[in-house]
Amino acid sequence: MPIRILPTEVASQIAAGEVVERPASVVKELVENALDAGAKSVSVSVAAAGRTLVQVADDGAGIPAEELSLAIERHATSKLASADDLFRIVTLGFRGEALASIGSVSRMTITSRRADAPAGARLRVDGGRIGKLEQIGAPVGTLVSVEDLFYNVPARLKFLKQDATERRAIDALLTRYALAYPQVRFRLTEGNAPSLHTAGDGDRRAILAALYGVELAHQMLDILADEEGFKLSGFISPTALTRSNRKEITFFVNGRWIQDTPLTSALLQAYHTLLMVGRYPLAALFIEVPPEEVDVNVHPAKAQVRFRSPDKAFSFVQRATRRALLAYAPVPQVTPATLWGAPAQRVDPTWSLGHAIGMQNGAGGTQTAAAIPQSEINPLQSAVANIPLLRLIGQIGATYLVAEGPDGLYLIDQHAAHERVLFEKLMAQHAQKNIVSQALLSPVMVDLPRASAALLATQVPVLQHLGFDVEPFGTHAYQVRAVPSLFAKSDPASALRALVEDFEEDEAPLQNEIEARIAGRVCKRLAVKAGQVLSVDEQRALLADLETCASPRTCPHGRPTMIHLSVDVLERQFGRRGAK
Ligand code: ADP
Ligand code: MG
Q1: First-to-last CA distance in the chain?
Q2: Mean pLDDT lowest among 138-142, 221-225, 502-506
Q3: Do residues 538 and 398 make contact, with C-beta atoms less than 8 angstroms apart?
Q4: Does ligand 1 lie within 6 Å of residue 63's CB atom?
Q5: Which residues pair with 53 in a beta bridge?
Q6: For residues 336 and 385, which has the higher predicted lDDT (pLDDT)?
Q7: CA dihedral of 299, 178, 57, 87, whole degrees rounded to 10
Q8: What average pLDDT is seen over the chain?
Q9: Cys-Cys link to 527, which of 76, 419, 483, 571 (CB 3.0-4.6 A)?
Q10: Ligand 1 atom 23 nearest Cα
Q11: CA-proximal residue: ligand 1, atom 19 (nearest)
């Protein structure tokens, strides 16, 4: 093919691809424009998760009628005049691309009126073709309606996810902007009832409650720091509140939501050694720096920035969050009373296995444990063989049971073992379609983050199968009326949270897979914890239950429940073998 200049329409669609990826990107650009226009109130309504309609209304400055047709041109902006201005940017927009891009891949209508204008003006753009300017009565501010996104680029339509996922992206976006701009009233509606409605009174914690639920919001720690012109505010979770992924870590830099930022590593460093491996904090952090300290022009969707001195930003975030964490420390690890009804314990986090053995056996014990070569400790992986009858010796470090078998010593991880026991009992009842449910004396209300509540709604039938009787209660809460009797003594709120907190976005596995996975998760949450002192009877019961399991040697997630030190290993370690 010969080289030629692309027709404008094609070029626009290509450019639009960088800015408009999905309905949530449209919401983002339009909301940013509203904020740039000084809006005090921003209302977003969508239909079909934004596929058929995204509409954003604001009460900002409005666009003069004579500039309306310019606003939808590519590289047309009122926010920037020269390249130097790029380092003085105080608005969210500056590229002058959003309206042009959106207009080229949808049917867009802009209606706007300035306060000093007698009437409003309206302009329609249909797949990049600009209609004619009309005069029309309108309130002060701007209303942009985007219908049939990607109707003229069917290939892009195919990349959209399920409605629930697209809806969640919009919801997540707007909630985060609401948090970043607590002085602005935000509203999100699909259908009749608003799913988000903020007061615009500056109260960030109230918005946090909309995002995470009242209870979690209440636990979050305040961050406020100010150093050499860098300011940090927002919230981070205490060490006891974690997630299995980084999705709940949000950063705003000068009012922009920034993704994939090294600042996330700075935050994680602050938590270093305070969280278990594979667990991540929740955070909503807002950094304000002088505009000349950041280059905002590094990403088409403006989702990244580059700091002039990245190290300074990094260590500022790391120190400020670490300081806050330590100020609230030491966080006593209180283990909730679970199935066993044991009283809550305070645990010394330095209490390790080596330490425990050393304490009990006197000097040298620790060394012995450490000196056994890895290869000679058998984590019993095989799921085939049952375990022999074990004689309980006791509990160490409030974490492991020690037992004697016909062939040496067994160390049993009480949490992993209990997980296995609960899981097999639940799945056995499930297989016989006979999960025994126990009604709670009085129903328990559980407050969940809105997004989790929505996710859970899709899983109610699965939960019923598993013996949970739960019912949505408003947009945020669930009422738990019955739980599987296996879990009768445990905290129903904790069980329900366990069900949703690690739910992945697009989880849509087969029905029986879901059930096993959900069962595994509940069992994990409700099993006795490491660090929980068990009575001798409880220890015995756990061993006896484990002996009856079909796969006693691993927890449902595949970790070993026990380590075996054979008589042979012991003899060699003590130099008895061949010593006659
Ligand atoms: P940018 O935001 O990068 O300037 P856009 O394409 O998003 O580019 O918008 C183009 C121009 O249209 C803006 O610079 C602004 O002057 C005007 N505009 C867009 N949306 C609004 C709005 N909601 N209120 C007032 N003016 C707006
Ligand atoms: Mg813009």
Answers
A1: 90
A2: 502-506
A3: no
A4: yes
A5: 47, 147
A6: 385
A7: -30
A8: 82
A9: 419
A10: 34
A11: 33
- Collect all residues with Cβ–Cβ distance below 8 Å to 143 and sequence separation of at least 6: 55, 56, 57, 58, 110, 111, 112
281's tokens: 């904090």
3 state DSSP class of 57:
strand
Q: Which atom of ligand 1 is nearest to the CA of 100?
A: 6
Reported as a pLDDT band with limits 50, 70 and 90, residue 535 is very high
User: Is residue 238 lining ligand 1, measured as CB closer than 6 Å?
Assistant: no
Contacts of 327 (CB under 8 A, 6+ apart): none
Q: Going by C-beta distance under 8 Å and a sequence separation of 6 or more, which residues neighbour residue 5?
A: none
pLDDT reading at 418 higher than 50 = yes
Torsion of CA 128, 134, 137, 143, to 10 degrees: 10
Confidence band for 285, pLDDT divided at 50, 70 and 90: very high
398-407, 476-485, 503-512, 547-556, range with the lowest pLDDT: 503-512
Look at the block and give the residue holding tokens 């859970």. 456
CA-nearest residue, atom 16 of ligand 1: 78
More confident residue, 8 or 236: 236
Report H helices in 271-364.
Answer: 310-328, 353-361
Is 0.85 surpassed by the pTM of this model?
A: no
Residue 470 DSSP symbol: E
Pocket mutation for ligand 1, best pick of 36, 42, 125 (most atoms within 8 Å of C-beta): 36
Burial of 425 (0-12, 13-18, 19+ CB in 10 A): middle
pLDDT at 504: 52
Residue 243 gets which letter from DSSP?
B
Cα(415) to centroid(ligand 1), Å: 56
Query: If you measure from the C-alpha of residue 537 to the centroid of ligand 1, how many angstroms do you get, rounded to a whole number?
Result: 70
